Amino acid sequence: MCPYTNRPLKAEERKFNNAMSSMRTTVENAFGLIQCNWSLNALKHGLKSRLRPVAACFEVSVLLTNCLTCTRQNTSVNSRFGLDPLSLDEYLDVEVDDL
């Protein structure tokens, strides 16, 4: 979603823009956390399409980051949304039939 850009902005539009900016920052922080923990995802380290399975590498990085979040129990992402992370057992508890 794009922010409102017409001038002058109505109070509702300013409130929406502020909320979207806050969410965008949280999402960018989550991507930054993935890249910091797993530098393989950085383009400068050679993660390029057709040379490596880019999507698979990123999905594994997300999975491992989520596992770290479960073990650390406190990150900016879960704090921002007021959620308690799952325990690692809860997060990884998948029945074979669910796959």
Overall description:
The protein is mainly α and 99 residues long. The protein has one domain. Helix content is 57%, strand content 0%. It is extended, with a radius of gyration of 18 Å. The model has no long low-confidence stretch (mean pLDDT 80).
Q: Brief description of this entry?
A:
It contains 4 helices and no strands. With 99 residues, the protein is mainly α.
Strand/helix succession: HHHH
Number of strands: 0
Q: What amount of the residues lies in strands? A: under 5%
Number of helices: 4
- End-to-end separation in angstroms reads 32 Å
Overall average residue pLDDT: 80
Unreliable spans are none
Sum up the overall morphology in one term: extended
Q: What about the largest sheet? A: none
Keywords:
single chain; 99 residues; mainly alpha; 4 helices; 0% strand; extended
List the helices and strands and how they pair.
Elements lengths: L10 H27 L16 H19 L3 H5 L7 H5 L7
